[in-house]
Amino acid sequence: MKNTVLTLQKQKEEGNKIAMLTAYDYSTAAIINAAGIETILVGDSLGMTMLGYDDTLPVTMEDMIHHTKAVSKGAPDAFVIADMPFMSYQGSVYDAVMNAGRLVKEGGAQAVKIEGGVEISEEISAIVRASIPVCAHIGMTPQSVNAMGGFKVQGKNVQKARQIIEDAKAVEKAGAFMVVLECVPAALSALITSQLSIPTIGIGAGAGCDGQVLVYQDMLNLFPGHQAKFVKHFGEVGKAMTDAFKAYSDEVKSGAFPAEEHTFKIDEEIIKTLEGEINR
Ligand code: KIV
């Protein structure tokens, strides 16, 4: 059964936590959907995980639509949220509405995610007026990495914490159906969650949120190297893939693959006839 804004809201009201993972392609979306995860985020983190950029800033609307289309096809039950990339909504309210519309109309998303709080309220309201559900994203907002001076925990002093609470209330008032809290101290996220009627989804924001989101490559440990404190590995898929790729390479080189059972047969007489023709 398809998850909707109503089923997600009901989960908050009934105290049932919401699970969200990122996905960027059809087959991963299908696996996540089959696992019963309620929401899939086509994050602009695809700039790093799929396209190899250092941050999300170069990601375009075309990139987002391309990946959202694939995810939507693989997710018959999960509620698909597509990220609005950098500069697709900051220029004007008109841009925000039209680009949100493209993610729904061309990408097949059920909702969009937009970074920012108080300062982006007008854009959120306008997108919601166009009947497109909006998930807001506050706290550490990766598209503001240059303004924030890096990927840092937000809201650690009274003034900054107060600002995040104001952001949370502003996006709810503007009509957002959900809000992602990224890299916010756990006690502050719990306080915000208790003050909002819409679900909060945490990433590096503690257990007091109404749900959690992780980048799927992080939780599967697909890439070696630095990972944020909030990431937990739920599998060692990077190692499993490397082992499988090496085993394949070894078998190709030794001739063990393909074996008899992986090959197609032809009548021997046909081969004899062809050989006769060639040698004539
Ligand atoms: O782009 C993304 O994947 C995100 C999540 C980390 C929340 O915004």
Describe the structure.
It contains 12 helices and 8 strands. The chain has helices spanning 5-14, 26-34, 46-49, 61-74, 93-105, 121-129, 145-148, 158-174, 186-195, 216-219, 237-254, 268-279, and strands at residues 18-22, 39-42, 79-83, 111-115, 134-139, 178-182, 200-203, 211-214. Helix 2 (26-34) packs across helix 4. It is elongated and about 90 Å long. The structure holds 3-methyl-2-oxobutanoic acid. Residues 22, 41, 43-45, 83, 137, 180, 182, 203, 213, 215 line the site of 3-methyl-2-oxobutanoic acid. Residues 22, 41, 43-45, 83, 137, 180, 182, 203, 213, 215 line the site of 3-methyl-2-oxobutanoic acid (KIV).
User: Structural class, please?
Assistant: alpha/beta
Radius of gyration: 23 Å
In this structure, how is the largest beta sheet organized?
Answer: 8 strands, parallel, barrel
Order of strands across the widest beta sheet? 1-2-3-4-5-6-7-8
Bound molecule kinds, no repeats = 3-methyl-2-oxobutanoic acid
Name the helix and strand elements from N-terminus to C-terminus, one letter apiece: HEHEHHEHEHEHHEHEEHHH
Poorly predicted tracts of residues: none
Strand fraction band?
5-15%
Average pLDDT for all residues: 97
Number of helices: 12
Helix share of residues? 40-55%
Query: What is the number of beta strands?
Result: 8
Distance between the termini: 65 Å
